[in-house]
Structures are given as C-alpha cells and as structure tokens.
Amino acid sequence: IVLVSGHLDSWDVGQGAMDDGGGAFISWEALSLIKDLGLRPKRTLRLVLWTGEEQGGIGAKQYYELHKENISNFDIVMESDEGTFRPSGLGFTGNAKARDIMKEIMTLLWPINVTDVYDHADGTDIDYWMRDGVPGASLHNDISKYFWFHHSQGDTMTVQDPNQMNLCAAVWTVVSYVIADMEEMLPR
Predict the structure, then answer these.
(1) Which end of the chain is least crowded, N or C, by CB within 10 Å?
(2) pTM of the predicted model, to two decimals?
C-alpha cells in the first residue's frame, strides 16, 4: 500500500482551505490523475483524508490501530500538511537505501525544479507508521506565507494558487505512482 494523505479538519476559525484542504486536494488529485491516465501500478494506492488532526491526531491513531496488523504491506506513507505553495521537494524518513531510491525518483521532477530530498518527513497523521519503520514522505514547499494564514480567519480558498497546487499535485502523483509501480517495496 502506498498511502497519500491530507487532513480535512480545520482549526476553530477559518475554513481550513490551506491547513489542510490543500493537502487533501493534492492527494485526491494524484489518484485522479493516475486513474485518468489509465495507469495501473503493481501495488495499491490508498487515499486517506484524516480527521481529528487538529484535536490531537485522533483520526490517525484510530486508523493506525485498525490497520497496524498489516504494517508489512505499507510501502510508504505520505502526508501534505504545510500548505500547497510552490514545492521544492520532499521530506523523507527511511533508511539510506530507501533515501537513495527516493533521490532517484525525485530526479524525474527536474523539469519542474522539484528535486530536493530533505532529512525528515513531518506529519502528525503518519508519525505512528514512521515510528514503526514504514518510510514516510512529506511535501516541502515555500512556507514563507504559511503563517500569514495558519489557524486564522484568512485560511480560505483565496489563499490557494491553482498553478502552485498543480505543481504540488504533480509531485504527489509522480512519487506515489513510481513507488507503487516498483518491482520491490522500499527497503526498511
């Protein structure tokens, strides 16, 4: 299973369009693009739209508890939770061999200048999996304006830039599809 995700809940103000509607949207879009292109990877792609992230990650904990017995079937868990601004690469948590594979995959995104692999994946909703050794990835993007809107009444759809979101969705699509279609799972 290659899991792509974002969370749906928002803070007590605003609409949660950026935090984290953008992450939910690009995860949905990644699977939609793969389907529209008629691609059928070797492994399952799964979309999870988390709930309860802002309330302590209770949705992620429940999902983990329900599925942890099948942890060996999870190839990578991916979460976007820091906006969907201009992407620069992925944070990655995994061993050195898996990191080398991720760096190779990211070279495919050279045409849109999104090739960096950073040292650590972040994500409340995927932390349980990464602690148990499942490789994890999180979207890195230009967060210079993130805290202008984060947990505020300004977190509305007008924050989203369709061109930047398309780039984020492209990153999510390429990475999730390539990993799901590899002959072997990422090393642990």
Answers:
(1) C
(2) 0.95
